[in-house]
């Protein structure tokens, strides 16, 4: 019983805790934007200032990140202008004249629902337009002995239907003209998110130069194993980072968490190095080459009793036409209530006929029309005979052309040493607008990149986290998007209530000691055993029963050995003693003594 009440108290405590969490979530919703607007404001009303109350959340103030350490490019757009960036004036080839121009609009502004006033970024403003903008690096990046770290932030403020948000690291060439930046402008690396339909991608592509032919070929990294859907739909700012090391290893991170990694030599498609051997294009399969592993047994003969003409179905000869079958009545008849339409033209529409309806006479009959026996499976049907299949003694296996040395083979063990790049650019087509870019950074030092990320994206993450709604509001929002969650919520709330009712108010009443006297139900030997030794009590009762049986057997054997029977006076005296013992059982002290006497641990064998 005490255990049951402990469970009840535990359930009540959990319910109260949930209620407190609910109230706290509703009362502690944070508005970081309002807090930030109050920073620096002085009280002008002259009223006596009240003692400050503890803030509901830490205040986050924005400070533009400053590049520290060695870097090649750093842009936070907090100046509010596009100084240092070049808008493309080119036209895209092989495209309709109406959409060939790179006339998509770019603006430097804050996010629509910013949590950090003063934080500005580059925003793609146009839908269904070609956009191209680029910026020059402080100095070209040369792939030698230092790693490459590229990172920037993206926020799909209105979601993304079809479009990209990737960057291109434009190769350093004599012909590079940022005014004519187009999709065919040579680049060394393309990196970033891209989405169309339900295909969520995170590109990492580098252009590798064939050392034999000098032709560049795109190499694509394998797809990440994680689900990228959330990064495109949650309307939060995410940090995309590419780390490329001189040992050809690479890492792709989102929000400083690795989502993809690999090696340029083994995890790119197509492979950097071609195979050493290829199939001979001039080799052809011989005409007598036998690729059949099984053939029909040429020595097999069709059995004489095999009937190929036997039908698969035959009429059931045991079937009998049901009584009341209407042979002369059709299943369907013309509708007597139908009338020819007034605009019916027999010359154009032909002779009018009333529509067919089920024959009403057939509704009460087993059937109408000509009765036919039902069809059943033919027990003698075997189908067309075919000889059994056996192993082909002439089987030569699947033919493959022979291998020859690859004339285009080369081995590049250092694909990291790709073409240097001197500019970064965004060349995009998007069906969604208001894509927010911020805090571009290119360096060769990981610590410098992490410091820049913490000073920029770290503030956004803290502000967005502080402004997130409480748990209850998040649950309500999730239920609006997924109505089936209401069932989960109802069960979560109702289950503790049901358990409290079951455990607290439906317990079985423990019988009083006096109730055992009215029945033959066994009573516990000792109170301490009832409370703390449930299992031991059962074992002891079984041992007690065995001892009682032994005592009865010994008593009978002793009585058989006595030659004289007791006198009537002695029988009366024994009867009086038995009555006195029954009376003693009614009293409390005698009852406890009797219980202890009957306990297996205190019982001693009587001797007559």
List keywords for this structure.
single chain; 608 residues; alpha+beta; eight-stranded antiparallel sheet
Overview of this protein structure:
It is a single chain. Helix 1 (2-27) packs antiparallel against helix 8 (485-505). The protein is of the alpha+beta class and 608 residues long. It contains 13 helices and 25 strands. Strands 2, 5, 7, 8, 9, 10, 11, 15 and 24 form a 9-stranded antiparallel β-sheet that branches. Strands 1, 3, 4, 6, 12, 13, 14 and 25 form an 8-stranded antiparallel β-sheet that branches. A two-stranded antiparallel sheet has the order 16-23. The longest helix has 28 residues, at 534-561. Residues 19-57, 526-533, 562-574, 579-587 and 599-604 have low confidence and may be disordered.
Number of helices: 13
Q: Could you give the count of β-strands?
A: 25
Helix content: 25-40%
The SS-based structural class is: alpha+beta
Shape descriptor reads extended
Instruction: Supply Rg.
Output: 46 Å
Share in β-strands: 15-25%
Q: Give start-end ranges of low-pLDDT stretches.
A: 19-57, 526-533, 562-574, 579-587, 599-604
Average pLDDT reading: 79
How far apart the termini lie comes to 45 Å
Largest sheet report? 9 strands, antiparallel
Biased composition (Basic residues): 598-608
Protein name: Calnexin
GO cellular component, one term: melanosome membrane
Membrane topology: Single-pass type I membrane protein
């Amino acid at each position: 019983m005490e255990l049951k009440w402990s469970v009840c108290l535990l359930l009540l405590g959990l319910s109260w805790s949930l209620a407190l969490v609910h109230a706290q979530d509703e009362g502690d919703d944070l508005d970081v934007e309002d807090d930030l607007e109050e920073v620096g404001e002085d009280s002008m009303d002259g009223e006596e200032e009240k003692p400050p109350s503890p803030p509901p959340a830490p205040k986050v103030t924005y400070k533009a990140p400053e590049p520290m350490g060695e870097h090649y490019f750093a842009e936070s757009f907090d100046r509010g202008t596009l100084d240092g960036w070049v808008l493309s004036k080119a036209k895209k080839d092989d495209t309709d004249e109406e959409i060939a121009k790179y006339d998509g609009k770019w603006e430097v502004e804050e996010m629509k629902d910013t949590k950090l006033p003063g934080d500005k970024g580059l925003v793609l403003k146009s839908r269904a337009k070609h956009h191209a903008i680029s910026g020059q690096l402080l100095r070209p990046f040369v792939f030698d002995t230092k790693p490459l770290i590229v990172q920037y932030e993206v926020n799909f403020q209105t979601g993304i239907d079809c479009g990209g948000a990737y960057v291109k690291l434009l190769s350093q060439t004599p012909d590079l003209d940022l005014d004519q930046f187009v999709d065919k402008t040579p680049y060394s690396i393309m990196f970033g998110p891209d989405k169309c339909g339900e295909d969520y991608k995170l590109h990492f592509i580098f252009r590798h130069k064939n050392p034999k032919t000098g032709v560049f070929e795109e190499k694509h990294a394998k797809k990440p194993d994680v689900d990228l859907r959330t990064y495109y739909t949650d309307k939060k700012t995410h940090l995309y980072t590419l780390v490329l090391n001189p040992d050809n290893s690479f890492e792709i991170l989102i929000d400083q968490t690795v989502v993809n990694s690999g090696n340029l030599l083994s995890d790119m498609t197509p492979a950097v190095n071609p195979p050493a051997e290829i199939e001979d294009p001039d080799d052809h399969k011989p005409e007598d080459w036998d690729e059949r592993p099984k053939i029909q047994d040429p020595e097999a003969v069709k059995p004489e009793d095999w009937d190929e003409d036997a039908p698969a179905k035959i009429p059931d000869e045991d079937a009998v036409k049901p009584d009341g079958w209407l042979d002369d009545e059709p299943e369907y008849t013309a509708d007597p209530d139908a009338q020819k339409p007034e605009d019916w033209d027999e010359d154009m529409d032909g002779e009018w006929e009333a529509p067919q309806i089920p024959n009403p006479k057939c509704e009460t009959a087993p059937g109408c029309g000509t009765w036919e026996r039902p069809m059943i499976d033919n027990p003698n049907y075997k189908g067309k005979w075919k000889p059994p299949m056996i192993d082909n003694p002439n089987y030569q296996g699947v033919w493959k052309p022979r291998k020859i040395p690859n004339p285009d083979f080369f081995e590049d063990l250092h694909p990291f040493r790709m073409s240097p790049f001197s500019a970064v650019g965004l060349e995009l087509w998007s069906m969604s607008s208001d894509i927010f870019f911020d805090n571009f950074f290119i360096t060769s030092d990981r610590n410098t990149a992490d410091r820049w990320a913490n000073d920029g994206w770290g503030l956004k993450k803290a502000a967005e986290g502080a402004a997130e709604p409480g748990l209850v509001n998040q649950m309500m929002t999730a239920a609006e998007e997924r109505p089936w969650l209401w069932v989960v919520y109802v069960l979560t709330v109702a289950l503790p209530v049901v358990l409290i009712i079951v455990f607290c108010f439906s317990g079985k009443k423990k019988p009083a000691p006096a109730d055992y006297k009215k029945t033959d139900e066994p009573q516990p030997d000792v109170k301490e055993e009832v409370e703390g030794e449930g299992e031991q009590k059962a074992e002891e009762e079984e041992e007690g029963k065995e001892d009682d049986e032994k005592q009865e057997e010994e008593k009978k054997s002793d009585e058989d050995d006595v030659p004289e029977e007791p006198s009537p006076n002695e029988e009366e005296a024994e009867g009086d003693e038995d009555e006195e013992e029954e009376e003693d059982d009614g009293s409390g002290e005698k009852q406890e003594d009797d219980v202890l006497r009957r306990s297996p641990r205190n019982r001693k064998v009587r001797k007559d």
